[in-house]
Amino acid sequence: MTKKKIVVLGAGYAGLRTVKGLQKKGLDAEITLINKNSYHYEATQLHEVAAGTEPAKKISFEIKDVIDESKVNFIQDEVTTINHEAQEVSLKEGEKVSYDYLVVALGFESESFGIPGVDEFGWPLVDIKTAEAAKAQLDKNLQNYKVSKDPKDLSIVVCGAGFTSIEYLGEISNRLPKLADKFDFPMDKVKVTCIEAMPKLLPMFSEKLASYGIDVLEKRGVEFIVGTPIKEIKESSVVYEQDGELKEIEASTIIWTTGVRGSSVVGASGFEERRGRVMVEPDLTVKGQPNVFMIGDVSAVMDEASGRPYPTTAQIALVQADYVVEAMANKFSGTEPNLFEFKSAGTVASLGNNDGIGHTMNKDFKGYIASVMKKGIVDKSLLQTGTPSVLLKKGRFDFYH
Ligand code: NAD
C-alpha cells in the first residue's frame, strides 16, 4: 500500500516545528516540507537586522541542518496556490505536489491597508530581505547627510506603535549614537518619530509598564505622535491626520510596521479568509476539509474568553504545531484528537539589548530582567525549531553587562 502523503507548507515557527515533531513521531507517511528559502529565520528578531545590531545569519539557520532528510523530503520553492479539489499544491517552478494531509503554515506579509504609497515608499520588516533592505536604506540616508545636509536624511519615521515598531525603536535608538560616529552626523539633528493611529500606546501592557517603555524610548529621543492615523506615504514624507487636519512629516527613512496579514496564497486558493487568515475549527482544520490544518499567521483561532481571535505570535504558532503533530497521529490511528487549547505564557518586548518590558505569571517585569527574559524566549524557540547545535551557534547568551 502506498504511504499517505503529509505536506507542510512553510518553514517558519509553525511549519518547521510541525516537521520536527512529525519526523520524530515515526508515522507511516511520506513527509514533504515546502519553503521558498533554504533557511528558517526568527521572525521575532527582524528588528535587530533592520537596525543593524545583528547580521541576518545570527537570526537564521539552514533547514537542512535540522530536518532528517531520510524522513523528510525538502522542496525549496514558492507555493502559488492550493487546489483543494485535486488535493494538490502548485509551485512557482511549475511542479505540482499532491497531498493526503496538508499543513498550511505560510506565515505573514506586510499589510498596506490600501494606504497610498505604502508599497512604493514604506520599508516593511517582514522577512530577511526586507529587514536587510530597511537597514541599507537607513545607512544610505544617514551616510548621505554629510553631503546633502538635508534634515530629511536624519529623519526616521516608524509607522504604527505595535510590538515590531517598539522593538525596532528600542534597537535603533540604542544604535544611533554608534551610527553617528560611523557616518559622522550630528546626533542632535537626528529625529525619530513614531506615528500611531490609536490614542493609547502599548495597550497590551499595564499603564505602569507602558509608561516605563514609552519613557525609556522618549529619553533616547523618540517622539510619539498618537491618535493620528497615517493617510499616505510619499517618497520622503508621511501624511497623517490629527484633529481632522492632514499633517506631513518629512523623512528619508520610513519604516512600515503597522501590522501584518497572513499569506496571500490563502486568498488566492479560495479559502474563506480575512486579511489572509482563516477562522479554523477547534481542531485547527479548515471547515469542511478535515485533512487541511491551518496554523501560524494564516490561522485565526477564536479566544472564547475575549470573543476575538488570539493575536498571531511565535508563541501560539509553536503551540499549534505541537497540537497538529498529535492530531495527525490521531488521524493515522483513527482516534479522536483533543481540541486545541492555548493559554498565553505572557508577553515580552525588548527595548534594545538590555532593557525591556514584559508580563508573565501575573507579574510585570521591566528593565534588565525583562531583556533577559526575552533572550530566554529566543533561545527556547531556537531549540523548538532548531537543534542544540543551532542554539549554541545562534543563541543569546550575553546576559551579563
Ligand atoms: P500590530 O498589529 O501589533 O501593531 C501595529 C500598530 O500599528 C497598531 O498599534 C496599530 O494601531 C497601528 N496602525 C495600524 N494602522 C495604522 C495607520 N494607518 N496609522 C498609524 N498607525 C497604524 O503589528 P506588528 O507590530 O507588526 O505585530 C504583528 C504581530 O506579531 C502581533 O500579533 C504582535 O503581537 C506579534 N509580535 C509580537 C512580538 C513580541 O511578542 N515581542 C514582537 C513582534 C510582533
Automatic annotation (TrEMBL):
GO terms for molecular function: NAD(P)H dehydrogenase (quinone) activity. The keyword Endoplasmic reticulum does not apply. Keywords: FAD, Flavoprotein, Oxidoreductase. GO terms for biological process: aerobic electron transport chain. The keyword Protein transport does not apply. Residues 5-320 form the FAD/NAD(P)-binding domain. Belongs to the NADH dehydrogenase family. This is FAD-dependent oxidoreductase. It comes from Vagococcus fessus.
